[in-house]
Amino acid sequence: MKKNIDTEEAMIRWDSFAESYAANHSDQGDAHKEVLLNPTLFSLMGTVEHKKVLDAGCGEGYFSRLLAKSDAIVTAVDYSQKMIELAKHRTPDEFSIKYYQGNCEDLHFLVDSRFDIIVSNMVMQDLENVEKAFREMYRLLVDGGTFVFSILHPCFVTPESGWVKDDYGNKLHWKVDQYFYEGVYEQRFGDEEKVLLFHRTLTTYINTLLTIGFRLEKITEPKPTQAMLKKYPSFEEDFRCADFVVFKLKK
Ligand SMILES: C[S@@+](CC[C@H](N)C(=O)[O-])C[C@H]1O[C@@H](n2cnc3c(N)ncnc32)[C@H](O)[C@@H]1O
């Protein structure tokens, strides 16, 4: 396992992966986002109408567009220049989303206390210095503002996790190893591309947030609804093990 690879290296990979990542995203994102993450994030954010919302790590921008459709006033940042180009290209003019290329670990070009809500969907496990990023989120929120973010569930998705299968390919159980390892690892997306992820324990995430001054209001481990299972029966396996955890915090 390689070490000392920082956010800049991770970003080179996101830039080269951006086109195929975007090709896999429609107006609801991908299936995991449609089934598990979008309903959870919207439910935790509460009403977004006329609220100033930052989408931190917006990727190709599908979630920013959902927010704009719900009448939020949306600013979106991503460190990948390529992702920002794709997001702008995919956004109709009437949405007036402000897109910026920027590193969530240092968003100095955005003034303090600027947002009512910050949402970050599957980004905080992709950057090297999560404490710096959380401090930026805290700085950018108004007092009483809400920070909602989703990550791969760090208790189940680790550098050495995956299904153990029998000789016929049946999934016997989910294996977890290297939970206490904190640092970079590679994860394969599709056939070829590998992105860099930064594993850290649940303790590290929660204690870092509390030290900065956030108040933890709710945690959700999303499960599919019956309606979503009818549309995507393969999500039945999400009752065996959680893919994601979503946090709601208050400044
Ligand atoms: C898994 S994708 C999620 C994108 C989007 N939120 C979504 O749900 O489709 C992770 C995104 O985080 C961005 N990213 C990674 N590190 C970042 C950083 N330090 N600052 C800003 N964006 C970052 C990547 O460029 C990529 O677009």
UniProtKB/TrEMBL annotation:
<dbReference type="GO" id="GO:0032259">
    <property type="term" value="P:methylation"/>
</dbReference>
<dbReference type="Pfam" id="PF08241">
    <property type="entry name" value="Methyltransf_11"/>
</dbReference>
<keyword id="KW-0489">Methyltransferase</keyword>
<dbReference type="InterPro" id="IPR029063">
    <property type="entry name" value="SAM-dependent_MTases_sf"/>
</dbReference>
<protein>
    <submittedName>
        <fullName>Methyltransferase</fullName>
    </submittedName>
</protein>
<dbReference type="GO" id="GO:0008757">
    <property type="term" value="F:S-adenosylmethionine-dependent methyltransferase activity"/>
</dbReference>
<dbReference type="InterPro" id="IPR013216">
    <property type="entry name" value="Methyltransf_11"/>
</dbReference>
<feature type="domain" description="Methyltransferase type 11">
    <location>
        <begin position="54"/>
        <end position="149"/>
    </location>
</feature>
<keyword id="KW-0808">Transferase</keyword>
